[in-house]
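Our preliminary data section would be incomplete without showing what the modeling component actually yields. Below, a chain of 381 amino acids is followed by its predicted structure, encoded as tokens that our downstream tools consume directly.
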Amino acid sequence: MDAQSSKVLKSLSPGKIVLPVLIGLAVFVFLIYQITEELDFDQIVNSIASANIAWIFAALVVLLARDAGYVYRIRHLTDKQLNWVSSIFVIILWEFASAVTPSVVGGTAVVVFIINKEGIKFGKSLAYVMLTAVLDNMFFVIASLVTFLFVPFEIFPATSNNFEIFGWHFSVKGAFGLSVFLIGIYTLVMTYGLLIRPRAFKWILIKLTGNRLLKKWRKWAVQTGSDMILASEILRGKRKRYWFWAIISTIFIWSARYFMLNCLIAAFSDINVADHLLIFGRQIIMWVVMLISPTPGSAGTAEFVFPLFFSEFFKFAAFSGIVAIFWRLFTYYAYLGLGAFFLPRWIRKVFDTSSHKKEETPKDAKQDSAEENINVEEKVK
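Predicted structure:
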């Protein structure tokens, strides 16, 4: 195992789960403390015992369907170069990487390494990961706009206008506005660089880092621009069917992720179709807010924000904290456990087989794309 592989795997170490688990436990204790101030033990137990098992089962089915959608999408994006087993490993480790890194950072850099180790060249791995980022962020922006236009309810609950955590005052509307603006800018820049004019994108980066203040970022700008050109070349010429199923699978994945919570809330509350629509719409807003969380996998942030959006759907508002705990156990902490379980098995899988063949690294990819090491400034008109 080379030094680069060791460095990346260190960032995926199962020990990385300690911080998010500690944050989660602290928040869970805080939530339970708040809940027990308003509800007694019998009320909590009775509410849990009276849960609709059919809706809980539906939540688990939708969760599995979402994961199946992820597996299908990565296999489709790689033109089936990944088999089903490799695709499952990639998705589980991708979820794990996202869970142990801040939401604002994400685990996509590590995923390039993971896909590369599954036998796909570095340039292609980079292209596929960049494309998933563009597709996901496009969904966030477009779904947010659609929610505002077509959901005939107040998306932001009254309690979210101004709330306090440990003496700090926050506004969900303000956090949402900032987050969707940043996501929109990022998506436009990535789309321009990846799918429209990658060489112009590189030229702009080189120009921006040409002054003294930003000169230290020059090397990063050149490398990022070259990576974008390489990724763009790989995606160029894909057929309409490729893009159609990439978009459809993205919509399915995120719709299933959101509907899972609809099922979970329905298990503990009597809600109608209009409520389902409102819950679905609010999740889009909540998820966008969570994307700017500085904690690993939005640990703590998600648990705090959840009651602000959904407490009104429960007979006891404080019980929303219990549902938030179940929600995070299913959709976040489960993947910390799965990642810690699958990671050593994946390491044995890829390094035992790759020890008999030459592994491609970013350095190899640079050699493959030597034709891109030209004077980009002269080519951009």
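The chain has one domain: 3-161+172-372. The chain is about 70% helix and 0% strand. Preliminary results of this kind motivate Aim 1 of the renewal.
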